Amino acid sequence: MSTSGYITMQEAIQAVPLPFLANRALLPNLLQILLLFLTVLFDPYILKKQRRIMLVIIALIFSMVGQDLVADQLSRYQYATPLRTIQSIYGYSVRPVVVLLFFYIIEPGKRYKLSWGLIAVNTAVYLTAFFSPLAFYFSDDNHFGRGPLGFTCHIVSGILIAYLLYLIYLEAKRWRSPTILIPILSVLFIVGAVWLDSEIDATDEGLSYLTISMVSCSLFSYIWLHLKFVRDHEDALMMEQRVQIMLTQIRPHFLYNSLTVIQDLCRTDPTQAETATLQFAKYLRGNMDALQNNAPIPFTEELEHTKEYLALEKMRFEDKLTVRYDIQCETFSLPTLTLEPIVENAVRYGVRGNSGGRGEVAIATREYPDRYEITVNDNGPGFDPEAPLKEDGRSHVGVRNVRDRLAKMCGGTLTIQSAPGKGTRVTITIPKGENAP
Hints:
single chain; 437 residues; alpha+beta; Rhopdopsin 7-helix transmembrane proteins; Heat Shock Protein 90; 2 domains; 5-stranded mixed β-sheet; two-stranded antiparallel ribbon
């Protein structure tokens, strides 16, 4: 007691009838929960469903903090067995639910019926504590005892954590970013907290290691969600910019040439000029429709669009341009404006690069057990792929854009094989299982 007539802050806290307010771990964790709640509530960028899941997780974790504190207080009283039974049932039931809700943070579109079934079984097991020592019990002197099914919560939580790690692994394959370590380390943090609770008696601290770890992991999960949103947003902006660059870099020369052909036909063959005009309008309509589609499209649509382009070029080059098709499969999807720019390059640098501007372009598709392949061959002059890149050759921005969009949208690849005097072969590979028309 202070001799000056005033009490110290420590004495004031100790005078409060709830001694857990002096707990060093309580106030920082409550502050984290409050700030996380406000941040998630007013964040305009995360998905609505993910926001709802995060808010439910925050509410459950807050209730776990309260459950730990109540458990700490009830353990001090000899005749609190009924209340301790209720709070223990709640604690054992809600912890696996929090783990399950993290599934929806990673993959919000699924229902996870089997996992919810495990949650129901877990809850049913611990509800038996009201009338049986099957799960747990309290002795007459208020000591906790575990029954033969007392580790059901640990087993169910372990299964859910294992599946959570599997979901994270799938996300890591898709995202390919070191930030995936955030959810992985968070899960391992929870596992470590369970081990610490089993090895160290921390009841005097009020909060269990598991509760503290879940508070921190919910915060880390939100950070990861935000990083994921930023990455997806940047990817979308980059994709849109590259499509626009592709259009401005590739299309103008073709549009000019097509209009020039139509102008000449108006003088020499008005009927053919009318056909060419209709063909040109159909091509432009297909091109504009393609720009509005951000998802992969059926190969048949892309092939039809390519044929419209080649029909216009045939009007220009007539018998100097030969086109051959060997389409053996077409039941797959690919990013819009993938095949047509490659074929345009074959005409522009292959056929026109030959002596006399005469040449052949061959388009073929093949299906393999694990992939689909599209090949575009020309018998033009070829080039050295190892030579320094030039913006006016095969290294055109359109090829880079096609390669980037293939990789990002369907995990595909684009390879070029060429040599001076031996023509050029472009191979587009699309893995199976990731695209369907």
